[in-house]
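re: ur msg from earlier - yeah i can do the phenylalanine complex, just paste it... oh wait u already did. ok heres what im feeding in:
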Amino acid sequence: MTLRRPALTRRGFLTRLAAIGGAGAVYHGLTTLGLLAVPPAYAGIPAYPATIGQGRRVVILGAGMAGLTAALLLSRAGFGVKVIEANRHIGGRSLTVRPGDSYAETGRPALTCAFDDGLYLNAGPGRIPHNHTAVLEYCRELGVAMEPYIFASRANLLQSDKAFGGDPVQLRRIKYELHGQLAEMLAKVPDPAALDGSLGAGDRAAFLEMLSQFGALQRQGDGLAYRGSNRSGYAVLPGAGRNPGSLWPELDLKSLLDSDFWKNGLFNDATDFWQTSLMQPTGGMDMIVRGLLRAAIPGGRTVRDLVVTESPVAEVANTATGVRVGHAKGSETADFCISTMAPSLLAKVKNNFTPAYANALGRIVDAAAFKLGWQATRRFWEQDDDIYGGISWTDHPIRQIWYPSDGFFAGTGVLTGAYNNGAVAESFGRLSHEERVALALEGGEKLHPGFSNWVHRDRALSIAWHNMPHFAGGWQDNPPEADRDAYFRLTVPEGNVMLAGDFLSYWWGWKEGAVRSADLAVEAIVARTSQAVATRL
Ligand code: PHE
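and the outut:
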């Protein structure tokens, strides 16, 4: 038997793929050929030789996720590290507010948390997706306990003044009515090949069977029809004896379309980072910060020992040999600086950056974000609405209510009573705390008639991140997409200054971005240091 050369080698296949489809196609090609694991695992907290940074100093601006991550890695690699934080609070936007804690937006009276002991509000981030592998790996290695964060319950509610008389409707009802009605329509197509060239006449049976599963269709004569289903839930729940329960009546497609629910809420749990499962640190988001702060570094110290608080930065300057950083409590000279400040804030600090760099800093757009949380007098969402965790969505400016993912059946609990961004957050930000509370009560009433009776209005916390001292907003607006030139300019060090923070990642507004960008900044410093060491040898 003669051995025949394969018509197409693997390399040839990949080269052709690249020509046709670019790098993305090659990646898929590699995975198809089994040459790459999917998804590439995060290899663990980067570990560098413990002496690589000896004799070198790095100043880090900001003690949030990115700054503390960089501080941990660099000090473990032997660098001398100092973290300069403007606020008294360590942790940046990872702010968990507990009874007795207070904070203040610029120029406003401080708010003090009056919740019962044991309750808290994650005033900043509140959830971590299961595919945020880097931050989860840090949590694992730092011993931060996690519990489920429930993003979506099918019992959550959707509400719009435009539909269903303004009444809140269970999400399951909208979702599965839509499945059923769309499936029924498609089942009427005589020849699926007309819909998609990859299908042939022989695929019709499988196509119809798939649609039946997708939409809970039933046989009707020769065809398939949607005639309601228990997926949409019950107006009266089945019981025992003579109570079979009763399903909700069907909804017509026109009212589903008019409701606009498909714009907000209905499909949010399909967004890549909001797909189940998500997690939260047990006891509050700042448990991750605490994990980082207690992490051991050489010299019998911890990361906490590296942080100087309440010391806003006044100057960042590249010098012939490194950097100089002036701050309220002193002045530092170092080989490198990592700034994790919001770019728009760093641009306002006295500096000697090149005009192109300063310009790029100013072009990253800050996003306003607003949150309000309060203690409930009883867990009415559980008792009255069978809601255990998840989020209800409304057109009202509050936009959403988060139900606690923990403490089921406890007498009380903390609801996130509003969470929004952009223009709505800006207008909430202009209101007094009392006005915000009044508006959030109005929004709560839309989703849960009677709401005002079941929350302690004097135990409410509100926060407009764009008004908080030394923060520019909740996050930055899609940096890579919004202004690619500015984003890519900022990924390149400016002299001895480099940046880290979620804004410098494809995970803006997420801890994952903060951690991954900090990893990268440290990698760049280590690379430069080892090159310098190699030249000296
Ligand atoms: N991570 C935040 C959230 O889940 C903020 C965010 C929202 C970030 C949307 C990106 C996109 O609410």
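cool cool. The two ends are 59 Å apart (CA to CA). ping me if u need the other ligands too
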